[in-house]
Amino acid sequence: MERTQFILVAPVLGVLRPSTLSRSFAAAAEARAVLENELDSIRAAGTWKAERIITSKQGPQITVDCSRGSILNFCANNYLGLSSHPEVVQAGIDALKSYGAGLSSVRFICGTQDLHKNLEQKLAEFHEREDCILYASCFDANAGLFEVLLGPDDAVLSDELNHASIIDGIRLCKAKRMRYKHMDLSDLEVQLKEAQSSRMRLVVTDGVFSMDGDVAPLRGICDLAEQYGAMVFIDECHATGFLGARGRGTDELLGVMDRVDIVNSTLGKALGGAAGGYTVGPKPLIDLLRQRSRPYLFSNSLPPPVVGCATRAVELLLDSNEIAQSMTAKTMRFRNSMTQAGFTIAGSAHPICPVMLGDARLASLMSDDMLKHGIYVIGFSFPVVPKGKARIRVQISAAHTNDDIDRCVDAFIQTGQKHGVLS
Ligand SMILES: *Cc1c(COP(=O)(O)O)cnc(C)c1O
Ligand SMILES: *[C@@H]1O[C@H](CO)[C@@H](O)[C@H](O)[C@H]1NC(C)=O
Asked: Where is the Aminotransferase class I/classII large domain (predicted)?
């Protein structure tokens, strides 16, 4: 029957209704012109994002289709080197064999396996919070939270430089939206005062901001939140697994694990890098998210191999902090050598090491030259970062060797001299 319909429909459209068809062709051509125009303006603005094709697995050494031999990769969020860790990969294979490729279902219909519950429990344990809910991504986690938690009588106070997923998530909720200046406690206080007439207040910040690798002033934020009766939410995508004495995150680093109410993070960075996001926090909140959160209710369960990999990654980190310590040592090796050579590296101890260059063209030319030295790094310029603050963002991984770090520094010195950044 289906086949018959297919054969019939096409001639009917083409032969019997020619005017409708040409109208739709005209509309399609018009849409195409509009899209081409939009694409041209992105190219003209110099903000076109090309995708480099990697032909190997993710790791400190990768192969790409435009270069012979392997290159050293310094632009992944693979902070702990777990993306291709043998135990993590094996756990994914085991989960694939025992639990299959996927669930073909959302969680509440028939998409929850013991595997998912086990990972949620481990993540809650890792963050020392009551409960955890998994999402297909942290982007989804952020999209789901605010709408459920906050109504029109509430206020959300958000750092102006928060991640796009938080900004989108906040747009979806009906609460009063207030933005405070980047990491500015006095501006936050002004706004908290203004928000006193609201029913609830939620302060929202990235734990670590990904462009500068700077750490939110969480202790001050928690003090203000206590003083003005607000909850605190942090997005820990660039902190989970390695910041703090046991790698629990920015809240552990700054001694406020018991004062931050809600944490969102990702499985797509340090925790194996596959995919998935989650929220940890008070049990009633997590229960309510399972009932109401749209990205959770209407999107497929995380695939078992992804859950298997992430579970092993979290287990490795619950067992020992050795990997995170090794990453920190390499981060400091890079930061110290680069500073000694005369470069300016923003941030302090974070594995995001922005090599500040200022000029957008310089950042772009230097990153191209770095690739000729076999080092893969990416330049960032306006509008991703402010005008005049172009940089090459280097990201260190525990999987880099000391020799990898030294080779990267050497390449920076040579290209820096060539472009007059170093004398
Ligand atoms: C990467 C990132 C996200 C998105 O995480 P996904 O799991 O990849 O969707 C959200 N917030 C911040 C701060 C991030 O850096
Ligand atoms: C945190 O994640 C949840 C879902 O994972 C999402 O619904 C929520 O909007 C996120 N919160 C913030 C403040 O980003």
From this structure: 71-412
